[in-house]
Amino acid sequence: MLFGVALGDAMGYPTEFLNMEQIGATFGPWHKMELPLSPGGVVRVSDDTQMMLAVGEALAEVTGGTGSARGARVTQETEREPVARGGRRPRGAAQEGGASLTPAAVEAALRRHFVTWLRDPDNNRAPGKTCLDACAALERDIPWQAASILTSKGCGANMRVAPVALVPGLTAEQRAGIAQLQAALTHGHPTALAASDLTAHAAWLLANACPLTNLIGELRAYAQGSRQTYHADWLGDLAQRAGAPDPETYIAFGWDECLRALDRVAEALREPDVDQDPSKAVGAGWVAEEALATALYCFLVVDGDARSALRRAAHSSGDSDSIAALAGAFAGALHGIKFWPPEWREVIEYRDRLSALGTAWD
Asked: Is residue 91 one of the residues assigned to a domain?
């Protein structure tokens, strides 16, 4: 799943901000796209993967996993065999996970890793203004609710959330709370929180053998069941700061926008056109619920095929790197590491950190 995020991000990175005519002229038909090699033979990723690693390594640190996976070396032989489609992946009960987690500990770890990302000299991949401004405020050590950009629901909230689906031992409430908290540290709009929670839940469902035909229905049921659940232990007074009449009204607005986005996916899949621009079929993906919806469409319109999902998502006129990163998360959660070609895995930037983090939790 982690490699899927990075590979999709890398494939969509050079097509972002291009229209379909420009993408076709440069990269050819969508079903023939390959990873774009950079000078030195490395495939570069964007801030999407960088921030995804920040979330994952923060959670590994606070749960007693790998601490920081920076610089760790893991050989290809340590990568696990994929579970056959329809098989259930065991969730590591023997590993420490959510038993001792507290919102304060998770928030502190996320804050540290977000600020580290902010000051990293490699943070030069056109990061979003919301993330930059909020992380700069977090660095000033103010309450995170005051640092959050309350009006922003950009896809920066959920393009980085995939690791939350992997942490062993979390309860459903912890997984939802952490998914929403990591979004809210920068993006305080309720739709950013709901879309991040729903994105992590989609990845968790796929890693736990949810049939593709059931996925949209399961996500709709989860969204409807979460409409008025405000995770106060994790979010504190965020709703009050946002000016909502009450916490339930605040969070319900976000879930309702996500439900409408899921409806757009279902509608587009009724008469699917695999050659149509996904951003035209579902949405451009610049905001959180659209990034999730368009990524789901790209994943499902090719029946979950891993490489086709990345190619279809990257060959789109919207926020192609974020859409492809999420499509890659879904494909990787479903299939496992061996469905990504070794020649792709060998050249992806941050390969060692991705391997170390994934191996620790697999």
From this structure: no
